[in-house]
Amino acid sequence: MADTERDELSGVETTGHEWDGIKELNNPLPRWWLWTFYACIAWALVYTIFYPAWPMIHGATKGILGYSSRANLSRSVAEAHQAQAQYVEQIRSLPLEQIRDNPTLFEFAVAGGRSAFAVNCVQCHGSGAAGGKGYPNLNDDDWLWGGSLEAIHTTLEHGVRYEADPQTRMSLMPAFGRDGILDARQIDDTAEYVRSLSKLPHDADAAARGAKVFAEQCAVCHGADGGGNREVGAPSLRDAIWLYGGDKATIVETITNARRGVMPAWSGKLDEATIKQLALYVHSLGGGEQAAGEKAP
Amino acid sequence: MAVPNKIDPPEAAVEHLEVAPVNKREDRKLYKARVKIFPKRARGFFRTLKWRVMAITLAIYYLTPWIRWDRGPGAPDQAVLIDLPARRFYFFFIEIWPQEFFYVAGLLIMAGIGLFLVTSTVGRAWCGYTCPQTVWVDLFLVVERRIEGDRAARIRLEQAPWSLDKLRKRVSKHAIWLLIGLATGGAWVFYFADAPTLAAQLIHFAAPPVAWTTIGILTATTYVFGGLMREQVCTYMCPWPRIQAAMLDEDSLVVTYNDWRGEPRSRHQKAQHEAGHEVGDCVDCNQCVAVCPMGIDIRDGQQLECITCALCIDACDGVMDKVGQPRGLISYATLKDYNASTRETPVHTSLRSLVRPRTIIYATVWSLAGLAMLYALLTRDRLDINVLHDRNPVAVRLSDGTIRNGYTVKLLNMKEGERRFRLSLEGLPGALMTRSDTDAPPAPSLEIAVPSDDLRMVKVYVTAPPAATDEAETPLRFVVRDTADTESAAYKSHFARP
Questions:
Q1: How many domains does chain B have?
Q2: Closest partner CB to A29 (pick from B31, B393, B441)
Q3: Which of B14, B7, B2 is nearest to B267 (CA)?
Q4: Which residues contact B468 (CB under 8 A, 6 or more apart)?
Q5: What one-character DSSP code corresponds to residue A275?
Q6: Cβ-Cβ contacts under 8 Å for B10 (sequence gap 6 or more)
Q7: Residues of A in contact with B34 (CB under 8 A)
Q8: Are A138 and A11 found together in one domain?
Q9: In a domain, A205, yes or no
Q10: What's the whole-number average pLDDT of chain A?
């Protein structure tokens, strides 16, 4: 523009922009402001020399300071591991009960157990450890193989029905129907009896017949009263919790084909400290039990 | 009154200065080099007032952290303390927790309305008298004047070639400025830690790095803003002038050059008058421009740069006294009165103009906000409860058929001294509670001790028979009561079925 317009009232140049008679004034900026702007541009250019900046065909320029956010991350992680080392070492060496009674260690262990659980266990037990059909809920007070710290720890170390580990928790329920031990009628009666144990609606006559079958075939593991046996991981049939379901059809299916849930052994895959942390975490979820020698809750 | 009838005005007694305002219309350029300002010392009513305001505000700033206030054992005994690590704010008898930060929001609302009120009545009084930028620039100018002399001497020194004397003056000026900056930054950190302890740490170079960093930054900003940038901060960096200017109306008191009385200005009043020309009261001595810390000419009218410090009023009143004219050629006046005034019928602005519907409404709203906050503060609870329902799993069925929900309960004891709270449930018949951190048997309520002025987090399991929960979610209230008095709080939550 050859001639710039000046606002009459203020004497300031206008930018030539006008909206409904309102003109935009081009008020003067202080020169130091302009220099600050140039200094920022210069700073940005210098920055690109020292730090990774310009994109090239393969990666970007490295910058002469050799800064790398990835290397910084590795360093931070290493520092974090180092800071945790003393707790991890104590957890590795101390018995579980002592860890639980030390508030600092316990807090650390539960936090570590939570994150290890999120990586290794949630695939079956769910992110809240609430389980699902065939996968036990670890929040409740019902334990197949025991809910004390030691029992949970053993289960974690050696797994359940995990053949690669010779010390794994092992028991095999017979497939009563598939292997022809019981006929369909007997299985049906037994299912009625099992439902009667936990006071679910049932056919009393069939249940009475089923009681005999139960005493012969099932009581060995599940107990004469159906209360279960943790030595062999036989669930209580008297409580309100069903691992696979408590409806008639599911019970019939269970008796016919048996249930043989598998959990991998974690010793060898995870280090001892992590397994202990997992045991403490699972024990803290609300259903943890005292060991036999400890005072009753 | 001022009539064009000056027999022998002692004009000779008035010093005429050659000084151009920095924002002269003709000089406006796209990028403007800064014009250095050498404000002359002013004397008079407003200068005295400003000295007093400066003394009071600086005393408040520097001394407040040293006031002690006994809060009992274990609690800080500093009257005003922002305890960031412990997340507490102490103000004499008031203690604010982070969740009570809305009191600060309330203060901000009051400050906002207060700004409306002050601006609509007395214009930019904040800028002219109490803004830290103004107060510190004033302080820095005192130092400058003591070392380098008043305006004329300073201009001479500025233009003089470098000499040992100039170097000595400049070095000592900047050194004292930096010391003031250091004291300013130093005082700031005392608000965030126990002042005597931190002072001892600073003396022994054992203070935490954050204290040094803060002092360093504030020393730099005080020195740069107060010593070097001065009026540039107000004109170019501060949004306040723009906001305040928009809130002035024609009844607001602003520093006004009464041109109906002053114009046509003349340096040779007697000669002009004798020649038969009309002359105003302004002797064009430029004293008003010389004393202006913003470097502007108030005779150009109201302008963005004017911080209404009123020093030009003092300067002009002094000149009017000398020439034997009534004071008030430059005065606080409203735009309405200014417009209504003529030489023959001047309208003097009285304090009555401050009372009008707009200011009454602002004052009322401001007072109501203050009273509401005061009421909230005096009746606030000193215990609180927060409950977080476990989300995963929301509910667990236990082997005996009962249903268990987990909650993270946070109990806040905002008083000094340990208190024992009783936590109970409402809305869920037959519900029992257990704590994850004790082996106590399930009970309908729990007694929980919360340490002095602290928060206690407890994992609570609530179990209820299935019959108590017909709905997928049953509303549930956690109620906490102080076992020693009647204070209580409640939190609405719910109980879920699996």
A1: 3
A2: B31
A3: B14
A4: B428, B429, B430, B431, B474
A5: H
A6: B322, B323, B324
A7: 30-32
A8: no
A9: yes
A10: 91
Q: Look at B28 and A29 and tell me if their CB atoms are within 8 Å.
A: no
| CA gap B208, B202 in Å, rounded | 9
**Residue pLDDT, tens place only, B78-95:** 999 999 988 999 999 889
A284 in reach of chain B (CB within 8 A): yes
Residue B283 counted as domain residue: yes
Q: Dig out the tokens for B180 from the structure.
A: 């003031």
Domain extent, residue A21, equals 1-44
Select from B191, B57, B189, B59 the least CA-distant residue to B133. B57
Answer whether residue B110 is part of any domain.
yes
Supply the range of the domain harboring residue B112: 30-246
Q: Which segments of chain A have a pLDDT < 50?
A: 1-2, 295-297
| Residues B140 and B270 occupy one common structural domain | no
The distance of A239 to chain B (nearest Cα, Å) reads 5
Whether the predicted model's global pTM rises above the 0.80 cut: no
Give me the number of domains chain A comprises.
3
- B401 neighbourhood in chain A, CB within 8 Å: 239-240
Asked if omega into B264 is within 30° of 0 (cis), the reply is yes
| Residue that terminates a domain, selected from B210, B225, B246 | B246
* Minimum mean pLDDT range among B80-84, B126-130, B346-350, B400-404: B346-350
What's the DSSP call for residue B467?
G
User: Do A220 and A269 sit in the same domain of this protein?
Assistant: no
| Residues from chain B contacting residue A34 (CB–CB below 8 Å) | 31
Q: How far is B110 from chain A (nearest CA, A)?
A: 33
Instruction: Say yes or no: A270 and A156 in one domain.
Output: yes
Identify whether residues A253 and A271 lie together within a single domain.
no
Please tell me whether residues A251 and A269 are part of one structural domain: no
Q: Does A7 touch chain B (CB under 8 A)?
A: no
- Do residue B398 and residue A240 have CB atoms under 8 angstroms apart? yes
* A228 and A94 housed in the same domain: no
Closest residue in chain A to residue B23, using alpha carbons only: A28
Euclidean distance between CA atoms B280 and B73, whole angstroms: 71
CB < 8 Å to A140, chain B = 396-399, 404
Report the pLDDT value the prediction gives residue A297, as an integer from 0 to 100. Answer: 38
* C-beta atoms of A29 and B436 within 8 A: no
Looking at B200, B220, B246, the residue that finishes a domain is: B246
Enter the tokens of residue B87. 């997340």
Q: Kindly state whether A240 is in contact with chain B, defined as any CB-CB distance less than 8 angstroms.
A: yes
Do B89 and B213 lie in one domain? The reply is yes
A73 occurs within a structural domain: no
> According to the model, what pLDDT value does residue B5 have?
44
- Give tens-digit pLDDT for B247-261: 888 888 899 999 999
| Cβ–Cβ contact A34 with B under 8 A | yes
Q: Identify the CATH number of the domain in which residue B414 sits.
A: 2.60.40.10
Same domain for A163 and A269? yes
Name the region of B106 (left: φ>0; alpha: ψ -120 to 50; beta: rest): alpha
Please identify among residues 67-126 of chain A the ones whose CB lies closer than 8 Å to any CB of chain B: 126
* 8 A C-beta contact, residue B444 and residue B373: no
Domain match, A127 and A194 both = no
Rg (alpha carbons) of chain A, rounded to whole number: 35
How many whole angstroms separate alpha carbon B224 and alpha carbon B178?
9
Task: Indicate whether A103 belongs to any domain.
Answer: yes
Interface of B with A (CB under 8 A): 25-26, 28-34, 232, 235-236, 390-393, 396-401, 404, 406, 436, 439, 441, 461
Q: Are residues B176 and B240 in the same domain?
A: yes
Distance from B239 to chain A by nearest Cα, in Å? 15
For B399, the closest of A13, A126, A140 (CB atoms) is: A140
Tokens of B172: 């000592």
Note the residue count of chain B.
Answer: 498
- How high is the pLDDT of residue B437? 80
Q: Are residues B279 and B176 in the same domain?
A: no
